[in-house]
Amino acid sequence: xxxxxxxxxxxxxxxxxxxxxxxxxxxxxxxxxxxxxxxxxxxxxxxxxxxxxxxxxxxxxxxxxxxxxxxxxxxxxxxxxxxxxxxxxxxxxxxxxxxxxxxxxxxxxxxxxxxxxxxxxxxxxxxxxxxxxxxxxxxxxxxxxxxxxxxxxxxxxxxxxxxxxxxxxxxxxxxxxxxxxxxxxxxxxxxxxxxxxxxxxxxxxxxxxxxxxxxxxxxxxxxxxxxxxxxxxxxxxxxxxxxxxxxxxxxxxxxxxxxxxxxxxxxxxxxxxxxxxxxxxxxxxxxxxxxxxxxxxxxxxxxxxxxxxxxxxxxxxxxxxxxxxxxxxxxxxxxxxxxxxxxxxxxxxxxxxxxxxxxxxxxxxxxxxxxxxxxxxxxx
Length: 380
What we know:
By secondary structure, the protein is α/β, with parallel strands linked by helices. 31% of the residues lie in helices and 23% in strands. Helix 2 links the parallel strand 3 (44-51) and strand 4. Helix 2 runs parallel beside helix 3 and helix 3 (90-99) runs antiparallel to helix 11 (348-363). The longest helix is centred in the last third of the chain and has 21 residues, at 283-303. The protein is globular. The relative contact order is 0.15.
């Protein structure tokens, strides 16, 4: 046992409240990462981590805390408590509620008091009458465009948007993979919902399906094969690429060419370059290559205020077996599904795409088109 006074700032504030509630506070051994202090009461031993950043906690921070409970050091803890002074983003809460972690609880500090979080049913938010299009496009095949289209739409649906997908590619890969639609896992008490895939000849933007507010478009890599009247409507466009040390100039050329093609018919869309197939465990190498990419696009970003290269530390789609084998169902005969299955209490693709949605909401005006918050918080 230690004096709570040995802690500082937010950690001390949270520890004092737990101590007043009858918990015994203990500091971790020197050089121990993963939690700030432990709290013990009767047979309960809790690892507590306190986040005091000005911005709300996002998906990766929750994921790292969940990862801690895979380590041998965590076995002596009955559960963990992640406390945030600035709250949690909605997509972070969506991810947490969907992985069903029984060993971790979340809490927020309101008016100086720690409150546990409990999830209730979804709550409606004011609707917009505008139909918003998100394009996923690059002038090069094989970079994960179709996979990103499907799973971004899935994350959008998880987070409370009414969304549809249009398959603009004449090869119709997305239509084949999803057989016209796929079920998206429900959040909390919600049942799964159907995510519909439309071929371009099935889509009538003057009479969209009831309730649909967002449309994700899986584009053809051949720009001329994409209907101009749809590309003109893009409010947002994602350009997938990879951190390839041998392909920097080639990928850079492809991205610049993609931007030029989009701007030939659409001057106003927000455009985001997204790193796909990201190997996060190669942190140093990735950092070096990433800095080269940022330099490569720095002038372009200055000329194009709505063009952004997303730092993969902020949002990226990691390399994972779940995404690598996504689409195997067309050979196995199983029903189509997204790579959102929780395995061992975690799901990297789900975390990555919800985190990407967090980034888009933070760096554009997309959030105004949400039709419902799929989670209502009760703090107690």
